[in-house]
């Protein structure tokens, strides 16, 4: 007679424990901060998105403390795809913060995140046009404006005219726009031509700008495949002149396949990554190097880890996100840094590089005299 009540009591206790565990689990999930990441996970620019995804996941594994949930969306580095994904992240996933990799998506979704009062911390989004997008947009990659000035100053010391071939999308278009504006202000003649993403035959375009007799050539693309196609066809036209470019020239994925095409090209590169034994989060960067082969740029990985550090510290601070970001100082894989009043990172400095014998070497030049 006493056995049945005892069984009921034990069963009741077990059910209570299960219910409590489920409740605690649900509470833990509710406490997680959701971060929506817009990245190119497919297409020609996928190496940048995939490196970012792996770096963020590794950083979350190492320092996230179970507080952060990353939700990835493939924007293919295309603005309209990013807008669709951003609306889904905000309305359905109800993310607290956002992250972006590419320039075009950042420019496209910034108004949406500003309106929703949701902070974006972008590890990529390099264009000068990102500066001043709004109080909720921050980035751990320096503005291309500094980079453009480095490339232009090198060119302007040597020639007084330049042809500019640009892929008409996001980052390459913004890079060339800043370069051309600077050239026009400084009195350097420009012959500019754009081409659509996906175009493969550049012969007529090359012949057209070649006929204008420019003394140098700047090529600005979003992917290593497109850059290789352009350079191959420039070489086939026997067009011998100084050539300039941007980050894509120095990526591992480009140099591993096309270093012969890149020989002698001067380009603006991301800041160097020089992790020390004592520098915070450099253990995460080194672990990434052990686990994976970097396909985009070393700085892309370091910047992604640092962007995660920013969000992690912001979450743990318990402060108003914007107030925290405008006042905080950070230590991470890109070194010591903070944000200025435009949300631009202060600390890391871009580099001017040249390809020699298939490898990127830094160029040291004095600042131009005014």
Supply database-style keywords.
370 residues; alpha/beta; Rossmann fold; 2 domains; 12 helices
Notes on the protein architecture:
The protein is an alpha/beta fold and 370 residues long. It has twelve helices and 15 strands. The strands form four sheets. The chain has a seven-stranded mixed sheet, sandwiched between helices. A three-stranded parallel sheet has the order 2-1-3, sandwiched between helices. Strands 11-12-13 form a three-stranded antiparallel sheet. The longest helix has 29 residues. It has two domains: 178 residues, Rossmann fold (3-Layer(aba) Sandwich); 136 residues, Response regulator (Rossmann fold, 3-Layer(aba) Sandwich), CATH 3.40.50.2300. Helix content is 47%, strand content 19%.
Shape: globular
CATH topology of the largest domain: Rossmann fold
Q: Tell me the CATH architecture of the largest domain.
A: 3-Layer(aba) Sandwich
Query: In the CATH hierarchy, what is the superfamily of the largest domain?
Result: Response regulator
Average pLDDT level: 90
- What is the terminal-to-terminal distance? 100 Å
Give the count of structural domains: 2
Taking the sheet with the most strands, its summary is: 7 strands, mixed
Strand order of the largest sheet: 7-6-8-9-10-14-15
Number of strands: 15
Which runs of at least 5 residues are low in confidence (pLDDT < 50)? 1-29
Following the backbone from N to C, one meets helices and strands in this order, namely HEHEHEHEEHEHEHEHEHEHHHEEEEE
| SS content category | alpha/beta
CATH class of the largest domain: Alpha Beta
């Amino acid at each position: 007679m006493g056995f049945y009540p005892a069984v009921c009591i034990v069963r009741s206790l077990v059910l209570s424990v299960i219910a409590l565990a489920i409740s605690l689990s649900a509470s833990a999930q509710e406490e997680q901060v959701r971060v929506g990441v817009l990245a190119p996970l497919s297409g020609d620019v996928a190496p940048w998105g995939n490196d970012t995804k792996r770096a963020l996941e590794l950083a979350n594994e190492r320092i996230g403390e179970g507080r952060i949930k990353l939700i990835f969306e493939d924007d293919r580095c295309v603005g309209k795809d990013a807008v669709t994904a951003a609306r889904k992240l905000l309305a359905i996933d109800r993310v607290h913060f956002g992250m972006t990799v590419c320039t075009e998506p950042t420019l496209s979704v910034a108004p949406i995140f500003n309106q929703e009062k949701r902070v974006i911390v972008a590890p990529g989004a390099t264009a000068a046009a990102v500066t001043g997008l709004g109080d909720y947009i921050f980035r751990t990659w320096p503005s291309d404006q500094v980079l453009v000035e480095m490339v232009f100053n090198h060119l302007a010391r040597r020639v007084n005219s330049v042809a500019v071939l640009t892929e008409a999308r996001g980052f390459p278009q913004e890079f060339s726009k800043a370069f051309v504006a600077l050239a026009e202000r400084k009195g350097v003649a420009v012959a500019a031509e754009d081409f659509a993403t996906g175009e493969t035959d550049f012969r007529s375009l090359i012949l057209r700008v070649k006929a204008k007799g420019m003394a140098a050539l700047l090529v600005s693309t979003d992917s290593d495949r497109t850059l290789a196609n352009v350079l191959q066809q420039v070489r086939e036209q026997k067009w011998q002149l100084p050539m300039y470019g941007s980050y894509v020239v120095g990526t591992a994925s480009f140099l591993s396949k096309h270093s012969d095409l890149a020989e002698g090209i001067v380009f603006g590169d991301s800041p160097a990554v020089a992790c020390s034994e004592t520098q915070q989060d450099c253990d995460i960067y080194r672990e990434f190097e052990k686990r994976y082969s970097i396909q985009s740029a070393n700085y892309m990985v370091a910047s992604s880890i640092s962007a995660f550090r920013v969000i992690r510290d912001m979450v743990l601070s318990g402060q108003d996100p914007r107030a925290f970001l405008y006042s905080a100082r950070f230590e991470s894989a890109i070194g010591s840094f903070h944000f200025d009043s435009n949300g631009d990172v202060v600390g890391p400095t871009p580099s001017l590089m040249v390809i020699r014998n298939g490898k990127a070497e830094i160029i040291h030049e004095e600042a131009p005299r005014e």
